[in-house]
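Structure tokens please, single chain.
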Amino acid sequence: MLQAVIFDFDGIIVDSEPWHHRAFNETLKDDHIQIDWDTYQKLYIGFDDRDALKTAYKKAHKHLPSKRLQQLIEQKAVLFESYAISGKLTPFPGVIELIKSIPVRVPVGLCSGALRSDIEPIITAQKITSCFKTIVTAEDTAKSKPDPAPYLKALTHLEIQEPANTVAIEDTPAGIRSAKKAGMKVLAVTNSFSADHLTEADAVANSLEQVNRKTLEDMIF
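Here you go.
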């Protein structure tokens, strides 16, 4: 029996990655670092802000002190929040309907490498905040995806004893690995990567418009 469903945020609930990319480049421009879109898609999607910024500086062969890292995280968060509040980020087709269709007996969680300040304005605007029994964000774990720590924390909050009876909905290889290491089943959606990059998932869909409650229940053997 399906015991829980946990959604990723960026690339699953909202089409936010182009706006994260824009915010990173705005944040990095004073230090003469820029990330092209192709590199961002291949390397940075799935990272939280901390790991993305550390990677950008490493690739640029520049030192990044801890104090400067925190300043950059805060600066990028302010930029992204301004995009979110402006209404520029829109949900992917089918996702809001799917979240609302899951019965009350099956707890729903959100597990993301985004900051809580990135997430809250959007789920509030979409009127789905109350749908989530737990929300795990970048601030809640020391390690980010592909480490299993974020999903393990979400499962603990939901008091799940058998992760194999739960489904994570993800869009990146890093997210898939995180959920699989936590013992979950994974439904991947080709919002950010093509299906041939998502082969570690238990199932792949082109859109959540193709997915319903029964789809998720059938993933639990």
